[in-house]
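Database export, one record per block. Field names are fixed; values are copied verbatim from the stored entry.
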Amino acid sequence: MASTLENLRLVLADDHAVVRMGFRMLLEGAGATIVAEADCGEVAVAAVTEHRPDALVMDVTMPGIGGIGALERLLAHHPNARVLMLSAHDDAQIPMRALKTGATGYLSKRAQPSELVRAVAQVARGQRYVDPELAPQLALAQFGGSSDPVDALTETEFAVFLQLAKGNSVSQVASTHKVSPSTVGTHLYHIKQKLNATNAAELALIAVRSGLVEA
């Protein structure tokens, strides 16, 4: 495993410093060079723009625009960026979103260290990687149709829904996404219509039931 990632330049994005340190030690031990670290989505996008790494290893759940929002913003400016998304979530909803948005790969944080090294090597070569534990679930969700109501949301609506479900206000979401509160209000109206929800508490409950936020 020592030379698996030889000559690869990586950016790490996770809001937990201890987690980043662990990833850095593991990936550098496999031969990679960590050219930058980020603790939120906005910083991750800036780091990739500045350093042009072989791959970005990024957590889905981060402050600000979050991992999915950062992925969307990054690919709008750098369509060829190679991104491995990581998450502690087990459900298929978030990996489906990440892969649909354009992530090159997706891996659960519960995976073995050797699996992370394998995933990074694959993604850095531009090859698609899907966590073997989640692959059957993803296939079912993709081809068998999902009964999850959240599937009806667009990518932007999903990002807004997640932030509101976590307790952020409309003005906070507007500030994070750099849009007006009225634009967020419009998204919120459509989200409520699609999810058949009347208030923030119901949105939060739907998010918990879908496994997107912890109760």
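Remark 1: The beta strands are 9-13, 33-38, 55-59, 83-87, 105-108, 129-130.
Remark 2: The two ends are 39 Å apart (CA to CA).
End of record.
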